[in-house]
Amino acid sequence: MTDARRGLILINTGPGKGKTTAAMGTALRAVGNGMRVLMLQFLKGSWHYGELDAVEAFGGKWVMKQMGRGFVKIGGAETDPEDIRMVEAAWDEARQAILSGDWDMIVLDEINYAISYNMLDPTRVVETLRQKPEMVHVILTGRNAHPSLVEIADTVTEMREVKHAYQKGILAQRGIEY
Ligand code: ATP
Ligand code: MG
């Protein structure tokens, strides 16, 4: 055990609900401690999530950006080049933000999906995380976290689905899903 302060790498993965919202809970906690948080949302874009408006209240202390279009056709050859371009741009910004030291916490929301859809090479992410400034916290979300990322992470949580309203045919609800 050590009481030294250091930045951590966290992963919220697994099939159950709560990966993104748990990351936002951690971000809220960090902002309350005077930290600055950048949350970049890979692939997301078409839905308007309540959190996008809520973080405005925090000014520049908690910035959230949607970096995608919200609908991605998966499967190697079928992947739209435009989606790949957007993932590339999101990763560029993420990488610069991590290395800049301008942020105390960076949330890479849904980045695990971009990796598992073969839109982003996990070795690039691992390389950048290895170079991150000591004190920066990074949270990665999305199902199917790549084993190489799980390996370098400090805290990994797998959400397990016990049941989900969707299975009863209940569609996404305001305030719960968006
Ligand atoms: P949330 O954003 O609510 O924390 P999440 O980040 O864990 O969810 P994602 O994989 O990003 O989940 O999927 C986002 C959307 O899919 C959310 O609207 C969420 O409610 C829904 N969802 C998550 N898990 C399930 C599931 N097991 N069955 C059906 N829908 C799900
Ligand atoms: Mg999510």
Structure in words:
The mean pLDDT is 95. The protein has one domain (9-168): P-loop containing nucleotide triphosphate hydrolases (Rossmann fold, 3-Layer(aba) Sandwich), CATH 3.40.50.300. The protein has helices spanning 19-32, 50-54, 81-100, 111-116, 122-131, 147-152, and strands at 9-13, 37-41, 62-66, 105-109, 137-141, 155-158. It is globular. Strands 3-2-4-5-1-6 form a 6-stranded parallel β-sheet, with helices on both faces. It is an alpha/beta fold. The N and C termini lie far apart (39 Å). Helix content is 34%, strand content 16%. The protein binds adenosine-5'-triphosphate and magnesium ion (MG). The site of adenosine-5'-triphosphate has 16 residues, from helix 1.
The count of β-strands is: 6
Strand content bin = 15-25%
Bound molecules: adenosine-5'-triphosphate, magnesium ion
Biggest sheet, in brief? 6 strands, parallel
What is the CATH fold-level name?
Rossmann fold
Question: Any idea how many domains?
Answer: 1
User: Taking strands numbered 1, 2, ... along the chain, how are they ordered across the largest sheet?
Assistant: 3-2-4-5-1-6
How do the helices and strands line up, and which of them pair or pack?
Layout: E1 9-13, H1 19-32, E2 37-41, H2 50-54, E3 62-66, H3 81-100, E4 105-109, H4 111-116, H5 122-131, E5 137-141, H6 147-152, E6 155-158
Bound molecules: adenosine-5'-triphosphate and magnesium ion.
Residues 19-20, 110, 141 line the site of magnesium ion.
